[in-house]
Write a structure and sequence with these properties.
Blueprint (H helix, E strand, L loop, with lengths): L1 H11 L1 H12 L3 E4 L6 H6 L3 E4 L20 H11 L8 E5 L3 H13 L4 E5 L8 H22 L5 H27 L6 H11 L4 H21 L7 E7 L6 H8 L2 E7 L4 H4 L9 H11 L12 H12 L4 E7 L3 H16 L4 E6 L6 H14 L1
Parallel strand pairs: 1-2, 1-3, 3-4, 5-6, 5-7, 7-8
Helix pairs in contact: 1-8, 4-5, 6-12, 7-8, 7-9, 7-12, 10-15, 13-14
């Protein structure tokens, strides 16, 4: 598919792509680390939002600021910033989620002078009226601060246009996710990963058009391709997944990823903002209503209930927890989720990774064993 080929080309050099966008459009580039970042506000300010993952370079400079037991996302991003590889960024927005990202925000503010720095101190508990009012106030303040940094007056109409654009992207990805959940043979997991991750980097008008083109092509495939698919149906759960190869290894082991609960997956694109509401309230409403991550709180059983619903909805036969090593929120979350899955007699497997995957053979053996078990 042409759309997937374009996404793969961009992901080979995402930083180079953002630099080209800046040159071609004159837009400023604003980075972010978390799916709770209000991209609509960045986009409404005339800037280009781009998600930061870390380049995988060997850690040298970041060692003097972070312990070795910080997750590879945080350490790798700081290494890139200190090494000058993120010099194309005009600013970074830090939504406060996990402790490591909050501390990275402090270190970045003190040591990275090449771009502006803004915090968005989001509420931890998301299921109260007070949390809703607080989040709306935070987003309104961010709107003003970001507008000052970008030299732009962010109007309500700018925000509504940005909401419509992000809704197009999220709706297209949701449609693809639903199609793959029904017929996993129509799209390889690595191709879906490429579409999602590239959508976080692409110029957003191009992202919407490309994803809608992909939806049309995948819908045609769902009609024309034969339905035989003997693979076991798997749901991935965790935080950041920067490893497209994991999908191919699961497929080679006899599995197929039919859904996910990842912050670089469905948690990033799930839910639409209300286009008829006051724009800041619409952005806040979506963040409050979407599936919660373990750094936020909506009740003791919210995460487990969501995962079990997802497994049932996707008719999955097992769950693979794909966790970044030293990611405390997901590490603390795992025993609760595992216990809930065990009660429902849903098999699960835990895989911990860093910025690089373990040897292919080791992972394949573990996946093959799990697939055979289910």
């Amino acid at each position: 598919m042409r759309s997937i080929e374009e996404c793969r080309r961009i992901l080979e050099d995402p930083d180079g792509y953002v630099k080209r966008i800046k040159t071609e459009t004159g837009a400023k580039a604003v980075g972010y680390f978390c799916s709770y970042a209000p991209e609509e506000i960045i986009l409404a300010g005339g800037a280009h939002p781009c998600r930061l993952f870390g380049s995988g370079e060997k850690i040298h400079l970041a060692e003097s600021h972070l312990q070795s037991y910080c997750c590879s996302l945080v350490r790798g991003a700081l290494e890139d910033a200190l090494g000058g590889r993120l010099g194309f960024l005009d600013g970074v927005v830090f939504p406060h989620t996990c402790d490591s990202i909050q501390r990275l925000s402090d270190i970045w503010r003190l040591n990275v002078a090449s771009c502006f720095h803004l915090d968005a101190i989001l509420p931890v508990r998301l299921d109260t009226e007070a949390a809703r009012r607080y989040l709306i106030d935070v987003l309104r303040r961010l709107r003003g601060e970001l507008g000052e940094k970008l030299g732009a007056a962010i109007s309500d109409e700018d925000l509504r246009a940005a909401i419509r654009m992000m809704n197009r992207i999220r709706a297209a990805l949701t449609r693809i996710c639903d199609l793959v959940g029904e017929r996993p043979e129509i799209l390889k997991g690595g191709d879906f990963h490429a579409l999602v991750r590239a959508a976080m980097i692409l110029e957003r008008h191009r992202a919407a058009a490309l994803l809608e083109e992909a939806v049309t092509e995948i819908e045609k495939r769902s009609v024309s391709m034969p339905a035989a698919w003997p693979h076991k149906r798997i749901v991935l759960s965790g935080g950041v997944c920067s490893h497209p190869d994991v999908y191919a290894i699961i497929e080679a082991a006899g599995g197929a990823v039919v859904g996910d609960d990842l912050c670089t997956g469905s948690r990033w694109f799930s839910g639409l903002a209300d286009e008829s509401a006051e724009p800041i309230e619409a952005i806040a409403g979506r963040l409050l209503d979407r599936a919660v991550c373990p750094a936020k709180h909506k009740g003791l059983n919210a995460r487990a209930d969501h995962l079990i619903r997802l497994v049932r909805q996707k008719r999955a036969q097992g769950v693979i927890f794909f966790l970044l090593k030293f990611c405390d929120p997901h590490a603390f979350d795992y025993p609760v989720l595992k216990e809930a899955l065990d009660r429902e007699k849903i098999p699960s497997l835990l895989v911990e990774v860093e910025d690089r995957l373990p040897a292919d053979g080791r992972l394949r053996t573990r996946f093959e064993t799990f697939v055979e078990m289910i």
